[in-house]
Sequence to fold (453 residues):
Amino acid sequence: MNNANSKTLHMITWGCQMNVYDSGRMADVLAPLGYAGTDRPDGADMVILNTCHIRDRAAEKVFSELGRLRLLQEQRAAEGGRMILAVAGCVAQAEGAEILARAPYVDIVLGPQTYHKLPEMVARASRAAGAVIETDFPVEQKFDFLPDSMAPQGVTAFLTVQEGCDKFCSFCVVPYTRGAEASRPLGAVMAEARRLVARGAREITLLGQNVNAWHGAGADGRPATLGGLIRALAEIPGLARIRYTTSHPRDMDAELIAAHGEVPALMPFLHLPVQSGSDRILAAMNRRHTAAEYLEIVARLRTARPDIALSSDFIVGHPGETERDFEATMQLIRDVGFAQAFSFKYSPRPGTPAAAATVQVPEAEKDRRLQALQALLREQQAAFNARLAGRTIPVLVTGPGRHGGQIGGRSPWLQPVHAQGPLSLVGEVVEMTITAGHPNSLSATLVEERACA
Ligand code: 5AD
Ligand code: SF4
Fold:
């Protein structure tokens, strides 16, 4: 409803699913102040740029976006209005002072652990000239102080259960931008999951930079494990599917692997980044596991859940990576057979140990390796999708498809699925027969218009 207090908020979200989740929570926290979402930045009363610092040229991208927003901010001022401009996320955390120095028209800079203080910061920014900056790490407070979300909920939902990372991989900024590992208590996670389900979620993806290191306090106050949390979540009536991301191989414990075999709601798809297949590079990356240990985890997962599909992240061209190291990565990919993957050229992140290495792999070499690696991964993904043709699988219907009369959904292995069907099926898990596996999606037909779960 429009009233004198209604204001518009435009969010620009870059980076991981955790940022998507955080953007939603920032919108929740601002809703009581009268802010309602808008798709357009021009004319908005507030624009939040939720940034990602993980890969190349993060800061430059932020400054060029801010340059564009500044023009809209000036236009707004010329019309007698005011646009509050806020920078959130990991670039804000890492380069807060630099942002205010280079872009003094920014009103608020806030790190990922301070979103619950946003209303106060908005109030201060509205009153004062001069910017407000909050980049402390009071990690335990954030979730305690964020309100319960009342926003409409789709069929699939994200739920952050863990934040931060203590692993200090040589190449990665996350331990510096998101701080130490911290887990939300089991009770808080269960309560949020129940609320999401009550508002229509059928699938929940548990999020954390190191989600399988989750060790939130259980019912008895002692640290619980992710396997235990998944078993507890699986008891929530109406919750059909559970996923979690992103995991570290070192935290893949026996209980979690067993859960894959024993909890039907836990989907048979796991994003388990390996980064490299060379033990030498894995050591240089400070990953603290070998290629053989990774393969062993995959074998145990496949024993527990034979249809499990794997996804991974890869970095090519980490300092010191030779052709032989790269070939070891290619071999690991052939050995595992991935259903999906993300791959990147190594890019030095200031302040990380790998950035200080004196010998960097030449750019042209990184390009060549990335292309070879991506060609192999594309081939594996296409083969995985093609193999599903002719099979009948349960699909969670999430909304309309791209074309008229179509519905869209997700397979157990996270592939997008399209079929002719009625929108009344949204939110249901229905059996579909796959008619074709494309490189990035599946075409299907409904077996019958009756829900099976
Ligand atoms: N260079 C290239 N890729 C990186 N990633 C993280 N840091 C870097 C970097 N400096 C990749 C890793 C990680 C994913 C989220 O981003 O593969 O798993
Ligand atoms: Fe970064 Fe490594 Fe932590 Fe993952 S495990 S967030 S790559 S430091």
About this structure: The first helix runs from residue 17 to 30.
